[in-house]
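Review box. Two proteins, two foldings.
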Amino acid sequence: MTYRRHREDVLVRRNVTVEAIPSGEPIELEAGQLAQITQALGSSFTLLVEGQLMRLKGVDADAIGKTPPETITAPADLPIEELEPLVWETLRTCYDPEIPVNIVDLGLVYRLAFEPLPDDAHKVRALVDMTLTAPGCGMGEAIADEVCDKLLALPRVGEITVNLVFDPPWDRSMMSEEAQLALGL
């Protein structure tokens, strides 16, 4: 599979807060501003605005004339043995806004575990250890927040803890073969 970058020009239709890439700093885009979509994967859009990359959350897709991306759904009475595959599927919808590969195939998720919640026999705490492609990446918090939001939306997940870890340090060898092919490596 070869990744081809396709850019689409869009007009910002309403004021909206985005995150600067790679710092993660919130920035307000104003209605009438021009932007280019450089990546529309998972549940967010990467925009190029006046030479700066920005991340727009999918819930704000209407600000650029798009519909919010679909989310993964599952029945409320999901059997516990079906939760882990659903969590992995959900994690595959989370993307680094600069790289067109999901965080699982990038090799950023080091551990996934579940603990029962003592006060609710039907819910669990999901524990995720993940890393970033670079320790100084300003988007780490935004990616971790996206993981939290998506996993908390799943049935049976009552709490989520995402630990950003840097040992072992990430390198290209941690990527899946599919990810390496998609990036031409």
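Next protein.
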Amino acid sequence: MRAALRLLNGIALLAWPLLVWLALTYPHWRTLLLVLAVLFVLRGWSLRKSHGALARGGLLLALVGSLLCLASLVLRQQHLLLWYPVVVNALMLLLFGTSLWRGMPLVERIARLREPQLPPRAVRYTRHVTQVWCLFFVFNGSVALMTCLRADLALWTLWNGCISYLLMGMLMGGEWLLRQRMRKQA
């Protein structure tokens, strides 16, 4: 059950821009917002006992997502839904950025899950990767904000539902290739 809920939440998060576009473009799809709110609540419920910065961030995003869905339904202000990607980028920037000054950088924590004994060179590398992700969240969040302020649903959907995912995938893939090259050299 927990795995199915996690899969359903992952699909809903990835499809968020398309689902928002449907809800805003076709009035009979607005009831979908209630389903999304319930999914966000269930996601938050499943994360309630989890620990760590990413779990707390996921819990906060679940709360924000459910509040945006419910507020959009109750207030009949569907444009509120457009702000979710801005909140996601701001929260991720906060998580990654604060990890650079407090404790271990987030990418290093993730790397240590697979490889507990990282050499000093890898520790420096993970710090740089965390900084690159911070820059990505600043850029992506700024463009997401601009698409909200322009109130152009087609542009918002294109950026938040396609281009930002492609850029994120390219960043992950490029980092993975660079890491493999560095491992061969070491």
